[in-house]
Amino acid sequence: MIRVIDASVAVKWFLNESDSGPAREILREIGDTPRAFAVPELFYYEVYAVCMREHPKPELFAEKGMPILFNVPCTRVPMTNDLAMQGAAFVAAGLTGYDAVYAALTKQLEGIWITYDKAAAKRLGMPKWIRVLNAY
Questions:
Q1: Which residues of 117-130 are buried (b: 16+ CB within 10 A; e: fewer)?
Q2: CATH 3.40.50.1010 given to domain 3-132
Q3: pTM for this prediction
Q4: Do residues 10 and 118 lie in contact, with contact meaning Cβ atoms separated by under 8 Å?
Q5: Which percentage of the chain shows pLDDT scores above 90?
Q6: Which residues contact 115 (CB under 8 A, 6 or more apart)?
Q7: Residue 135: what pLDDT?
Q8: Could you report the per-residue pLDDT of 43-92, keeping only the tens digit for each?
Q9: Which of 12, 29, 36, 51 sits CB 3.0–4.6 Å from 20 for a disulfide?
Q10: What is the spatial distance between Cα 49 and Cα 3, in angstroms, rounded to a whole number?
């Protein structure tokens, strides 16, 4: 089954936070089975934006972290009209436009969305196709 990786997971690969362990496990899994993972193109922009704001050395992240991120072997999916149309229903359900893209891509691929965003999952009623890491 395809797993769609949320930017909230990838950010944890670069920030030393107490709850980063599950995200790093996902990264190991990607290395073992890269074809089983996908991300929307906006993933890279989101990770960059958060890490440039939160990383203790943003310039180092830009220089060293982004090339690492670009080399994580997962399928990159461009934005399409179909994805935008599918995302509209998720926006109507209360998700941000960004989260709606992850949700729509997950549904399009019949996969699992892996995220730290429990609030987004709650807005959709905690469906089985969303796996929230560190959900307490």
A1: bbebbebbeeeeeb
A2: yes
A3: 0.94
A4: no
A5: 94
A6: 6, 8, 9, 102, 121, 130, 131, 132, 133
A7: 57
A8: 999 999 999 999 999 999 999 999 999 999 999 999 999 999 999 999 99
A9: 12
A10: 23
Amino acid at 12: K
Burial 76-105 (b: 16+ CB within 10 A, else e): ebeeeeebeebbeebbeeebeebbbbbbbb
Q: What ranges do the domains of the chain cover? A: 3-132
Is the CB of residue 111 less than 8 Å from the CB of residue 1?
Answer: yes
The pLDDT, as a whole number, for residue 116 is: 97
The rounded distance, in Å, linking the Cα atoms of 103 and 80 is 14
- Give the C-alpha separation, 126 to 123, whole Å: 7
64: number of Cβ within 10 Å:
11
Residue type, 35: R
The residue ranges of DSSP E strands in the chain, in sequence order, are 3-5, 37-40, 75-77, 112-115, 130-132
